[in-house]
Amino acid sequence: MNDMYFQARRAPRAVDAALARDVRDGLGATQKTLPSKWFYDDEGSRLFQRIMTLPEYYMTRTEHGILKHKADRLADWIAPDGRALDLIELGSGDGEKTLSLCETLLRREIACTYHPIDVSQHALSELAARFSGALPALDVRPILGDYFDDWPATSPLRRQVALLLGGNLGNLTFDQSVALLDRIRARLAQGDVLLLGLDLKKDPAMILAAYDDAQGVTAAFNLNLLRRLNRELDMDFDLAQFAHFPTYSPLDGAARSFLVSRRRQTVRSSVLGCAFAFQKGETIYTEQSQKYSFDMIVQLAAASGFAVASHVTDDLGWYTVAVLQAIEQRR
Ligand SMILES: C[S@@+](CC[C@H](N)C(=O)[O-])C[C@H]1O[C@@H](n2cnc3c(N)ncnc32)[C@H](O)[C@@H]1O
């Protein structure tokens, strides 16, 4: 691989401070909450890789199928004129899905630099190994950091194509989503493109099953968040005293995961210097995964300076890779 390097934008201490703040605020709130980005320590990333292969978890293979079998349609949108590209992937994970798209761009002889951004060192190391093995000619520049803060330096002569796949946007509320899309839009020039992978509304039973697999891997993933807090903030969560609880509401299209306290208990952190009391049955809200209608995607795009140019969906219409084009900013 040419020019492979890691840009560590954030010192480990700063990540610890952000985690400490999120945990103090989140577990101190009336509805206890922990942001889903903290799932992805090395063990969390490994568990998520297993989740993506589970029979119930249709999202990954459906989106992967779109990127693999419809890569030429996507390439027509992102590289219509042979201009050089900066491909900037927010929350890239191990990059498995993006590989086919990069292969297609190289086959079309598009000059392309791939900038995957992820908070997980483990995921970026896997990505680096995958790309150097499969596409040694591609210029890959991983960035270890938070995609809310970090963006690569790019040239105005190249088209920027941002990718937000894996339903990552679905972890945010509508307002948070518009705020993130706004920030992405601010980095792009008119005509640049954002590829947005989004899960579509469908049979509620199928959606709920995706977060409640028979092997219990999703439960282990959810509980691993507490193990991380035990290790990094010296907390004393007893994992056996919390249960994974997934829900899906067709009313608002949100799948939400919780951890439920099995008994009345108090959890302490020597790092934070405080304790958190749990009633029996009290919940920690750990993740939202939004499911979308096409109307909702148009609303999101319109609210953040994009227009929906196309929907590239799988043949069953379960999932879309929406092609959003940056339109003129009226502010
Ligand atoms: C659901 S996985 C999706 C991975 C990949 N995009 C895919 O579709 O297979 C989410 C990824 O985003 C990363 N992530 C989550 N929040 C992030 C943030 N705020 N900044 C950077 N990476 C983040 C996680 O580490 C994880 O690798």
Automatic annotation (TrEMBL):
It comes from the Bacteria. The keyword Methyltransferase applies. Gene3D superfamilies: Vaccinia Virus protein VP39 (3.40.50.150). Its EC number is 2.1.1.44. The keyword Metal-binding does not apply. Keywords: Methyltransferase, Transferase. GO terms for biological process: methylation. Residues 20-325 form the Histidine-specific methyltransferase SAM-dependent domain. SUPFAM superfamilies: S-adenosyl-L-methionine-dependent methyltransferases (SSF53335). It is an enzyme of class 2 (transferase). Coiled coil: none annotated. One of its GO terms (molecular function) is L-histidine N(alpha)-methyltransferase activity. InterPro entries: EgtD, EgtD_Methyltrsf_superfamily, MeTrfase_dom, MeTrfase_EgtD-like, SAM-dependent_MTases_sf. PANTHER family: ERGOTHIONEINE BIOSYNTHESIS PROTEIN 1 (PTHR43397:SF1). This is L-histidine N(Alpha)-methyltransferase. It comes from Pseudoduganella chitinolytica. The lineage of its organism: Bacteria, Pseudomonadati, Pseudomonadota, Betaproteobacteria, Burkholderiales. The gene is egtD.
